[in-house]
């Protein structure tokens, strides 16, 4: 730290004055000047510094330097460290290393910008780090609460600078009147000091910029609920909610000894209901400590009621969230206006299209508002155009949703799901005879097929969840299921497809008039396809007989023929070959009569499968070639959906060599399709064929690639691949690796309610 005496002596000599002459010019006694220059008094009064500056006729910069040298060292005005501070070890280390690690360019201030939602512990972390670094900053720590999101207006930069100057010991008779003047004085004071400056609860970058020291001897911690994008040189730290173990430790600390240990599961439920938010956990723990008659189980039960959860936290959590919404700028107000409607969303991730439908505004208008809510940490951006609420923030948002608009908002979202589902279905080719209404796709932007399917990939889980809700009307449910039916087939998501179909069929049983007369047949047919793919041909046959009865040949010939052909395929799997053969021939005749090559392809596939089961292998090969040729002529873009099924049929016919040859020959072609589900299915059957031929190394290669293609996107198919991979590994003598695959497969099968779980359990038990 630069001392006052040497600075005064330098200025006096530069002015060509003796101590006596300076005393005469300033009105300060010679004895006082001698005492100051000798260092026997380090911090003169502000009036003395002003008189000396006048006597020396200093310009503004020199006057600021003399004032800075005279300022008293900071004593530090940090808030107290929270008594129950837990965890955050990595964050503490990262911020501390940044502020003290050195290596920055000369003259550049090191800035750590800590951002996060209200109540996540930004101030607690900043204070904890600052208190731990007091010995590293010889001239102290400065702290100012900028009131960026508090009651009233945020602190102005000028107010903040005057507060910082006061902490430095400046007692100016005339405080600076402009931000520029105060900032210059502050930077000059900092230039000779080692200081840590804590700027808490910043409203934004513009508020912070004038408060930054101008030297690398100082460092700054800034906290804000808003992401401080554009703060020069700042290293950002996005503070998330606490990890589970740290959240539990905080609850124990807040509740006191002996209150949590009685039921660890209930304690974890409390943490989960608090969303692992430190503010909520502290309030919950304090509430438990204040209620001696409550157990942790009582607290967990009370928090389970979402409608009353925020009440249990008192005003603390509500107030914290409300402060983040209290901005007065135009974008703050606009974002607050849509916040309540956004809370009506009941899924996990909120898509931009869904958000636009909820609030009934264009995507181009709504996206900047969503991003603003992300900046305020009221939403999290999980990926481009996708957002997520913290549980407590969403609960608060729902409280703000208008009662009279909630039902309409949900209906708009369901209409979007219907439109996107049927847009994908229409691009595969539908006709008026196939139960289609162009109004279903009205009001959505035109997307290419791959774009629609990619969107459905991200939304399919929520679409199914929406269908389960009692608020979804029967007619909407049936139309939604009709639009989604081909999607589930193409993506091989058979458990979900069967569930949505069964929901729609239940709606039709309750009210047969809620949808078109075509609906029962179409949906029954697709539900059957899902059961068939899950090796439950008996249930599939039952649904197909319903579908055929609902689609008479004279009034609905197309669907009657399609269902007849599919029934033949499932009867073949049940070894009812005579009826299957009769239906397959009838189906082929119907397809040729209709002139529909897609249906013809399906019929020839059925005939080939039956021929193989009956040992007529030449006929099987010819039928499969004709089936593929029909699709190549009519719809080559969907040929990849047939190729794996032919390989599987060869395997059912006891012809693993033919299956391997077919699947290998068409592997390059199916890879070109880009359809991950079809590619993984093709590789799975190739792996099964290789295993049947004792080519276990080749099987492992094919099945490992299949797993890489599909892993994480389709639980049901992943289970089937792991099931087969475990078998190949077992044959290779790698029993532990095989067991690992089977255990994962078993878990996935059970989650989806698949009957194949029993088979895998038998492998593990054996």
Shape: elongated
Helix % is 55-70%
Output the structural class: mainly alpha
Low-confidence stretches: none
Number of strands: 8
**What is the beta-strand fraction?**
under 5%
Give a structural overview.
It is a single chain. The protein has 766 residues and is mainly alpha-helical. The strands form two sheets. The protein has a five-stranded parallel beta sheet, with helices on both faces. It has a three-stranded antiparallel beta sheet with strand order 6-8-7. The protein is elongated and about 125 Å long.
Topology:
Layout: H1 4-14, H2 19-26, H3 30-37, H4 46-56, H5 60-70, H6 89-100, E1 110-115, H7 122-132, E2 141-145, H8 157-167, H9 179-191, E3 196-200, H10 205-208, E4 219-224, E5 234-238, H11 244-255, H12 264-273, H13 278-290, H14 296-304, H15 306-312, H16 316-324, H17 330-342, E6 350-351, H18 352-359, H19 363-375, E7 380-383, E8 386-388, H20 391-400, H21 406-427, H22 449-468, H23 474-490, H24 494-510, H25 519-533, H26 537-549, H27 557-573, H28 577-594, H29 597-613, H30 617-634, H31 643-652, H32 656-665, H33 667-673, H34 676-692, H35 696-710, H36 715-731, H37 735-751, H38 756-765
Could you list some keywords that capture this structure?
mainly alpha; 63% helix; elongated; 5% strand; five-stranded parallel β-sheet; single chain; 38 helices; 766 residues; three-stranded antiparallel β-sheet
Quick rundown:
With 766 residues, the protein is mainly α. It starts with a helix and ends with a helix.
């Amino acid at each position: 730290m630069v001392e006052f005496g040497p600075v005064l002596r330098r200025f006096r000599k530069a002015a060509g004055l003796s101590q006596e002459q300076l005393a005469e010019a300033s009105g300060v006694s010679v004895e006082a000047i001698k005492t100051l220059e000798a260092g026997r008094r380090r911090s003169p009064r502000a009036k003395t510094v002003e008189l000396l500056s006048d006597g020396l006729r200093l310009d503004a910069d020199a006057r600021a330097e003399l004032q800075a040298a005279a300022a008293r060292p900071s004593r530090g005005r940090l808030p107290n460290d929270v008594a129950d501070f837990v965890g955050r070890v990595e964050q503490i280390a990262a911020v501390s290393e940044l502020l003290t690690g050195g290596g920055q360019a000369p003259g550049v201030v090191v800035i750590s910008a800590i951002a996060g939602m209200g109540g996540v512990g930004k101030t607690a972390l900043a204070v904890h780090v600052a208190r731990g670094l007091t010995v590293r900053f010889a001239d102290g720590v400065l702290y100012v609460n900028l009131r960026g999101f508090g009651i009233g207006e945020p602190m102005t930069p000028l107010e903040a600078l005057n507060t910082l100057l006061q902490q430095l010991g400046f007692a100016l008779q005339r405080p600076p009147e402009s931000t520029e003047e105060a900032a210059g004085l502050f930077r000059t004071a900092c230039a000779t000091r080692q200081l840590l400056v804590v700027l808490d609860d910043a409203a934004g970058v513009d508020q912070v910029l004038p408060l930054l020291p101008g030297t690398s001897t100082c460092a700054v911690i800034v906290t804000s609920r808003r992401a401080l994008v554009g703060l020069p040189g700042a290293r950002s730290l996005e503070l998330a909610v606490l990890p589970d173990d740290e959240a539990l430790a905080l609850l124990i600390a807040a509740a006191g000894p002996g209150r949590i240990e009685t039921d660890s599961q209930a304690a974890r439920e409390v943490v989960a209901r608090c969303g692992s938010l430190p503010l909520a956990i502290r309030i919950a723990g304090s509430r438990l400590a204040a209620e001696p008659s409550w157990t942790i189980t009582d607290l967990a039960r009370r928090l389970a009621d979402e409608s009353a959860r925020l009440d249990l936290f008192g005003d603390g959590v509500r107030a914290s969230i409300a402060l983040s919404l209290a901005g007065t700028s135009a974008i703050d107000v606009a974002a607050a206006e849509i916040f309540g409607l956004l809370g009506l969303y009941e899924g996990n991730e909120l898509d931009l299209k869904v958000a636009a439908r909820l609030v009934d505004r264009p995507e181009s208008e709504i996206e900047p508002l969503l991003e603003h809510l992300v900046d305020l940490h009221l939403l999290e951006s999980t990926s481009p155009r996708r957002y997520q609420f913290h549980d407590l923030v969403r609960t608060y948002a729902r409280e703000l949703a208008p009662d009279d608009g909630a039902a309409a908002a949900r209906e708009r979202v369901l209409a979007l799901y219907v439109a996107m589902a049927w847009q994908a279905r229409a691009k595969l080719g539908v006709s008026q005879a196939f139960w289609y209404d162009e109004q279903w796709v009205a009001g959505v932007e035109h997307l290419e097929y791959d774009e629609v399917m990619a969107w459905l990939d991200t939304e399919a889980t929520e679409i199914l969840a929406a269908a389960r809700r009692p608020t979804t009307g029967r007619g909407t449910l049936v139309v939604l299921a009709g639009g989604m039916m081909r999607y589930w087939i193409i993506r091989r998501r058979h458990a979900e497809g069967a569930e949505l179909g069964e929901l729609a069929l239940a709606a039709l049983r309750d009210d047969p008039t809620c949808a078109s007369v075509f609906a029962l047949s179409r949906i029954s047919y697709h539900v059957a396809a899902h059961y068939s793919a899950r090796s439950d041909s008996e249930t599939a046959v039952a649904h197909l007989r319903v579908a055929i009865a609902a689609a008479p040949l004279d009034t609905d010939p197309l669907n009657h023929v399609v269902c007849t052909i599919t029934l033949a395929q499932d009867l073949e799997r049940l070894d009812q070959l005579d009826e299957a053969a009769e239906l397959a021939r009838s189906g082929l005749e119907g397809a040729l009569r209709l002139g529909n090559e897609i249906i013809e392809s399906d019929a020839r596939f059925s005939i080939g499968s039956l021929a193989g089961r009956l040992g007529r292998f030449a006929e099987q090969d010819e039928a499969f070639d004709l089936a593929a040729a029909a699709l190549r002529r009519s719809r080559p873009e969907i040929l990849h959906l047939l190729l794996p099924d032919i390989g599987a049929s060869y395997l059912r016919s006891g012809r693993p060599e033919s299956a391997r040859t077919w699947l290998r020959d068409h592997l390059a072609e199916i890879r070109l399709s880009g359809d991950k589900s079809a590619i993984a299915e093709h590789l799975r059957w190739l792996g099964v064929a290789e295993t049947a031929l004792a080519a276990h190394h080749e099987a492992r290669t094919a099945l490992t690639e299949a797993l890489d293609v599909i892993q994480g996107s389709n639980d049901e198919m992943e289970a089937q691949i792991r099931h087969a991979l475990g078998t190949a590994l077992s044959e290779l003598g790698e029993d532990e690796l095989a067991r690992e695959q089977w255990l994962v497969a078993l878990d996935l099968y059970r989650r989806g309610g698949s009957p194949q779980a029993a088979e895998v359990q038998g492998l593990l038990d054996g």
